[in-house]
């Protein structure tokens, strides 16, 4: 079967054209709209575009075009089929004639074109008689969309007083119509509200300033911009948006005082730093452009100061120096307010500052006394006699009342012992001798009190310097240990000495060293002054003998440069040593120590041997005594109970059986660990000697008995006393006499109590 092509005819836009008459022969509807016809061309299908206007209101299907094959003999054997976008719903085809209709209103903004496929088949055999071909139906645009500002409403900021032509902001509108077809999407901008201060460029939408504006007059403007399609022609659509334009502040206004004069008061008793008052200059600008500083001009800036409150921009006037009603009662100060930031564009209009006058009146007040000086420095030589004049202080009442003043030293026991002050004249004298070497300075506080109003008190510090007097002779700074070897040669330096002086020298200390007069004929050593406050001790002969003389005493005379000069004689001890070839100083020091003790080597060995023997003997005694105690008190299985009974009088002897209950000793056996018992013999003997001087009710005995009672109760290993009977006072009139052995021995030698065993007694220590 031969292949045929389809060729589309140009689609006529006029809806007045009728359909071709040949189509009425195939039972087609009469259509009053344009269409296109495809004709047969050899070697394939060729397609073109069909057009249909958007937004057409359809009362009946609208003819778009016609598909036709040259092989079609109009006998109804050909069947035309349409597939693709909207086929069967939006677009239909007459299967006999191939005429295409649109059945719905189309919107280009929703879908600008549709892609369809056409085919012709034999109705009887259902076989294609023409190959399938694809074509497009394009929706032709009409002006049905209005311009829209998608980013609106707008807001912009521009500095106040900006020049004409300054760009503020650009607004942009969009139109949904086809920009490539006609003027439906071509927009034109205009300003509806905001003139004469603003204008807009018609094609770009850029808003510009038309005249200068002052923020202090009006801070915000509302501008309405219109965008119209069809290049602004009649019948087009339009859209509007609002632009809020704010004016930002610049420093175009200077500060201005609302008053030319301000009046304030200050008491003369007000302390430095007191607030006197506040002033304020107004600035129409805002923020940093309204920030200002206040400055006091002239000499009054020494007495007063002004600072700026950064939050309120107020100027706070404060007192910089105390004022005195009696000296000056009124002040007139000139204050200037200056902007901190300047704008060079407005400097030609003059300085951005303003000036005002503040008149300050000083109020009278009862003031404390005023000293003639803030502090006093006085001098007195050390060693001055009691009652010597040190200095005088003066204070006065600054008020017109001129009250008398009473002076006193602030309470200090130490300073009052040294100084006193005349209550009326303020004269200070000393009460005792002063020593500069003990304290070179004394600081005292003196008060001045108004006698008519004791509440008005002032204080001042007095610094008293004790001047130095040469009253201390020079001396050695330390004890010198000097040694000379037996084999020393003449002229050998054995020691370098120096001196110190407690006195203070203005020119600096200088000491002179010589041998004392009694040693000038010394043929063993010499003293050589180094002229730098030091001197050297040199040997004056060859060789020394320890057997002949172990040590030499060398008196040295030291003279200072004070006025008058003082001297002192200081003795050096030079020890002779049996040195080896290396002249060991350590062995020399040991020999000197033995010499100072007056002992020889042999005597020292004997002393050490005696000490060792005594130590061995003492340790042996301790060991024997410890073994004796262990044998006297072996561990026993039975329990021992102590019964402590206190008597305030002489005991009844052997016939006294009512002192304690013997049955309390017969209790069950308790095993106890051995514990050494304290030896209280010495304490009991001391108690006996005291009993001869005090009565039985003395607190000494009560304390002792209670202490021993506690020890007996707490000690489970105490020796098994049957009864500890304590006699606080030795009785008189007993036929048996005293039973106490405390006074029977003057020394601490142990007594022999062996005779008591004959009566059945058991001895326990």
Automatic annotation (TrEMBL):
Function text: Cadherins are calcium-dependent cell adhesion proteins.
Domain of life: Eukaryota
Single annotated GO MF: beta-catenin binding
Keyword Chloroplast: no
Alphabetized InterPro entries for the sequence: Cadherin, Cadherin-like_dom, Cadherin-like_sf, Cadherin_CS, Cadherin_Y-type_LIR, Catenin-bd_sf
Protein's name according to its UniProt entry: Cadherin domain-containing protein
Location of the protein in the cell: Cell membrane
Species of the source: Gopherus agassizii
Cadherin domain mapped to chain residues: 69-149, 150-257, 258-371, 372-476, 476-590
């Amino acid at each position: 079967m031969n292949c045929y092509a389809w060729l589309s005819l140009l689609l006529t836009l006029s809806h007045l054209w009728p359909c071709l008459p040949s189509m009425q022969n195939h039972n087609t509807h009469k259509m009053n709209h344009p269409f296109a016809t495809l004709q047969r061309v050899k070697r394939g299908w060729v397609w073109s575009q069909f057009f249909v206007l958007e937004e057409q209101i359809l009362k009946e299907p609208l003819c778009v075009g016609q598909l036709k094959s040259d092989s079609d003999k109009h006998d109804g054997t050909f069947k035309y089929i349409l597939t693709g976008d909207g086929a069967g719903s939006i677009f239909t085809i007459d299967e006999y004639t191939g005429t295409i209709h649109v059945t719905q209103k189309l919107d280009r903004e929703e879908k600008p074109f549709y892609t369809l496929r056409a085919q012709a088949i034999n109705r009887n055999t259902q076989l294609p008689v023409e190959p399938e071909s694809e074509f497009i139906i394009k929706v032709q645009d009409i002006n049905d969309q209005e311009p829209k500002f998608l980013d609106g409403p707008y807001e912009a900021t521009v500095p106040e007083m900006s020049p004409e032509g300054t760009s503020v902001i650009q607004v942009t509108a969009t139109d949904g119509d086809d920009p490539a077809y006609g003027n439906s999407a071509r927009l034109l901008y205009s300003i509806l509200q905001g003139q004469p201060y603003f204008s807009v460029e018609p094609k770009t939408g850029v808003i510009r300033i038309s005249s200068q504006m002052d923020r202090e007059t009006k801070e915000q403007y509302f501008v309405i911009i219109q965008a119209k399609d069809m290049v602004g022609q009649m019948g087009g659509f339009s859209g509007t948006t609002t632009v809020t334009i704010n004016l930002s502040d610049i420093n175009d206004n200077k500060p201005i005082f609302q008053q030319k004069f301000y009046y304030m008061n200050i008491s003369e008793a007000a302390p430095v730093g007191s607030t006197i008052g506040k002033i304020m200059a107004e600035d129409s600008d805002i923020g940093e452009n309204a920030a200002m500083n206040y400055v006091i001009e002239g000499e009054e800036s020494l007495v007063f100061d002004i600072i700026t409150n950064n939050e309120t921009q107020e100027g706070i006037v404060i007192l910089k120096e105390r004022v005195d009603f009696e000296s000056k009662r009124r002040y007139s100060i000139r204050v200037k307010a200056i902007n901190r930031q300047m704008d060079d564009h407005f400097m030609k209009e003059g300085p951005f500052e303003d000036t005002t006058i503040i008149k300050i009146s000083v109020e009278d007040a009862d003031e404390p006394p005023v000293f003639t000086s803030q502090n006093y420095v006085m001098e007195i030589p050390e060693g001055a006699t009691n009652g010597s004049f040190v200095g005088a202080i003066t204070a006065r009442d600054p008020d017109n009342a001129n009250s008398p003043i009473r002076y006193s030293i602030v309470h200090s026991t130490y300073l009052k012992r040294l100084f006193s002050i005349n209550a009326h004249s303020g004269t200070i004298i000393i009460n005792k001798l002063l020593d500069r070497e003990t304290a070179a300075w004394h600081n005292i506080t003196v008060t001045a009190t108004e006698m008519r109003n004791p509440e008005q008190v002032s204080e001042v510090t007095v610094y008293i310097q004790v001047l130095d007097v040469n009253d201390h002779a020079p001396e050695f700074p330390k004890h010198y240990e000097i040694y000379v070897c037996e084999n020393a040669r003449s002229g050998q330096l054995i020691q370098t000495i120096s001196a110190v002086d407690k006195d203070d020298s203005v020119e600096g200390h200088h000491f002179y060293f010589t041998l004392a007069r009694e040693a000038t004929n010394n043929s063993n050593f010499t003293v050589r002054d180094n002229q730098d406050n030091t001197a050297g001790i040199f040997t004056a002969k060859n060789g020394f003998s320890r057997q002949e003389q172990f040590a030499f005493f060398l008196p040295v005379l030291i003279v200072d440069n004070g006025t008058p000069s003082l001297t002192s004689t200081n003795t050096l001890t030079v020890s002779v040593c049996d040195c080896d070839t290396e002249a060991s100083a350590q062995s020399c020091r040991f020999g000197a120590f033995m010499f100072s003790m007056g002992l020889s080597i042999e005597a020292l060995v004997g002393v050490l041997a005696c000490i060792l023997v005594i130590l061995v003997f003492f340790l042996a005694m301790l060991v024997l005594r410890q073994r004796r105690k262990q044998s006297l008190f072996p561990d026993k299985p039975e329990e021992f109970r102590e019964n402590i009974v206190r008597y305030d009088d002489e005991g009844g002897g052997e016939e006294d059986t009512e002192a304690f209950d013997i049955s309390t000793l017969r209790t069950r056996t308790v095993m106890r660990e051995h514990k050494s018992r304290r030896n209280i013999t010495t304490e009991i003997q001391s108690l006996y000697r005291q009993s001869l001087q005090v009565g039985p009710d003395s607190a000494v005995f009560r304390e002792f008995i209670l202490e021993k009672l506690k020890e007996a109760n707490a000690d489970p290993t105490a020796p098994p006393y049957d009864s500890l009977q304590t006699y606080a006072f030795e009785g008189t009139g007993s036929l048996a006499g005293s039973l106490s052995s405390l006074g029977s021995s003057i020394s601490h030698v142990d007594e022999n109590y062996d005779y008591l065993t004959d009566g059945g007694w058991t001895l326990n220590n």
